[in-house]
Every structure is written in C-alpha cells, then in structure tokens.
UniProtKB/TrEMBL annotation:
Pfam families: Serpin. GO terms for molecular function: serine-type endopeptidase inhibitor activity. Transmembrane segments: none annotated. It comes from Curcuma longa. Residues 2-331 form the Serpin domain. This is Serpin ZX. Gene3D superfamilies: Alpha-1-antitrypsin, domain 1, Antithrombin, subunit I, domain 2.
Length: 334
C-alpha cells in the first residue's frame, strides 16, 4: 500500500496526511465562506484489539475514534449505523453508502470517511440570464439543459486541445481559498482523450490551472448540473496496482491489529459514493468511502461554451489539494 501511495514508510505517509488534513480543514464563523467537513470513523468487531499506535494515529491525524461493534450477531445494525453516520455528516447527500448484504458475520472492521463541501461563488450568476440550450452527448445525441451565463471577465487558459476555467468561491481576505476548475475539450467528443491525459500525469491539474489575470469573454455558458454516483471500487484499485491488501494470501494488517488475526484479514470491499450540485449560487458536494476491511499583454476575448462533456475539480488553492473530481456527460442525469 505504501508503494501505491508513493511513500517509503508509514511515517512519511502519516506526515503527508497530517499536513493535508491541516490544510483542508476550514474553521469559519462566516456563513458566506465555504464550509468543508472531512471526518473518519472506525467500527471494529469486539473480537479484535487494535494496536495503540494505530488508534493514536487514527485519532490524532484523522480524527477517527474506534467504536467496538458486534458483526457476528448484529451486522445489519452496524451497516445501518454506518450509513446513518455518513448521511448525517454529508448533510443528507450520501445515503446508503454500504449496500445491504455486503457486511456479514465474517466482517471484522469497517473504516469509513465522509467529505462535505458547500461554497457560494465569488461572482454569482444572475439567474435571469440562465437560458435553455443544447448540450451535445458523447453518443452524438443532444439534450436541452439550463445554461448559466455572464459577461464578466474570467480566469481562462487555453492549451492544446482544451480550455480550463477557474471559478473562485466566496472567501474573505486572509482565509483559505477554494475554486472549481472546468476542463473543456475543444472537440465535442474529446472527453475520453482528456481523461486519459489527466490519468497519465499526476501533475496535470496543477500544470493546467489558470494563473494569469482575467480575460474578456465573448460567448460564455456552463450548464447547471446535479450528479451522483456510487460504485464498488475494489477492482479499480487492484487494476491500479493495490493488489496485496485484497489478496487473502498477501494481505498483512499486523501493524493495525494486536492479535494473530492481523495476518488473516484482507480488504473485501471498498464502497464509494459522490454527489455534487452546481447552480447560479455555488456548489454543494459530498463524497464518502467505506472500506471493509505569465506576462501581461492584450488578449482577445475568448469563448468558453461548455455545451459538451467536460471534467471538473474542486481545489484548495494553497495546497492544490483536489477535494472532488468528476466529469459531466449529461447535466440532466443525476
């Protein structure tokens, strides 16, 4: 797992996680500022004893406190408890994270996290300017969707084959800043190629974030959208190289469990759900995962017409930590 995340030791991984957690946690009494909540929970069967070192790291860095439960006799009740916890921490956006039947008497441990973000645009869109227009799907069909529009100058950079728009969320001076990036392919069917380029380059987002001043826009429209998606992520993680934790023969969690069972546990499932809504006011987004075991010069006006599939990301400015990432192929499909 260390090699998968790119760290030589657990100490290096924990230090990086500690710095990231400190960066993205936002504490503000200002209701107009972005609200970010990232919490973690651990549910452990009473037959297991967690190592004190693991409990200390989980509590200090991740804010997670282990709760003893009885999977052998009360597995459905534990699932209900975890799902209710996730739903509460995401303000109701993520429901039924763990499907019925995916946890049973053989389950020994569930580690879950939930991420919630709500932010208002620094420059809100005028709802009276929202008009219905045509959005082009990847299968060459079209749908009618509401498009937001503005004449205000925007942070837009142009690259080979795509443009990137940066929209800031409202924040007072001196507070952490967040923004959304929209990666718009030049070609209406160019999303897959753009996703492949991003996937093959870990620094892609940072290298293609608009840095210069605002530019004048000519035609500027982006769709309102609300999307949600859930999936079982084990195969994806295995295909990406994280094989050992899912293999009954190779998995080793002895650094976590204080018993002979530590080398008998393996990850059986990884359930992930995400939800995001974008409109004239701003963005509401949530995600949850459960693991069972340039130089200034004149620039001509640019067009940014997001009338075909695109990618997006929500980023914290100082750390460039990506909080959410996804793509929109049909703004009407939730």
């Amino acid at each position: 797992m260390l090699s998968f995340f790119g760290y030589p030791t657990m100490d290096h991984l924990n230090l990086a996680a500690d710095q990231l957690m400190a960066t993205v946690r936002v504490s503000s009494c200002d209701e107009t500022a972005p609200h970010l909540s990232f919490i973690n929970g651990v549910w452990v069967d009473g037959s297991l004893i967690l190592r004190s070192s693991f409990q200390e790291v989980a509590s200090r860095i991740y804010g997670a406190v282990a709760k003893p439960v009885d999977f052998q006799h009360r597995a459905p009740e534990v699932v209900k408890e975890v799902n209710e916890w996730v739903q509460k921490e995401t303000n109701g956006l993520i429901k039924d994270l763990i499907p019925d039947g995916s946890v049973d008497s053989l389950t020994k441990l569930i580690i879950a996290n939930a991420l919630y973000f709500k932010g208002a645009w620094a420059d809100k869109f005028d709802s009276s300017q929202t008009k219905e227009g045509t959005f082009h799907l990847l299968d060459r069909n079209t749908v009618k969707v509401p498009f937001m529009s503005t004449k205000k100058d925007q942070f837009i950079s142009q690259f080979r084959g795509f443009k990137v728009l940066k929209l800031y969320y409202n924040q007072k001076p001196g507070q952490r800043r967040f923004y959304m990036l929209i990666f718009l392919p030049d070609e209406k069917n160019g999303l897959n190629e753009l996703v492949q380029r991003m996937s093959s380059d870990p620094g892609f987002i940072g290298q293609h974030t608009p840095r210069a001043r605002r530019v004048e826009v000519r035609n500027f429209i982006i769709p309102k959208f609300k999307i949600g998606h859930g999936f079982e992520a084990s195969k994806i993680l295995i295909d990406m190289g994280m094989r050992a934790p899912f293999d009954m023969e190779q998995a080793d969690f002895t650094e976590m469990i204080l018993s002979s069972l530590g080398d008998k546990l393996y990850i059986s499932s990884v359930h992930h759900k995400a939800s995001i809504e974008v409109d004239e006011e701003g963005t509401i987004a949530a995600a949850a995962t459960a693991v069972g075991f340039r130089l200034m010069c004149y620039r001509p006006p640019v067009d940014f017409v997001a009338d075909h599939p695109f990618m997006f990301a929500i980023v914290e400015e100082d750390s460039e930590a990506v909080l959410f990432m996804g793509h929109v192929v049909n703004p009407l499909v939730e």
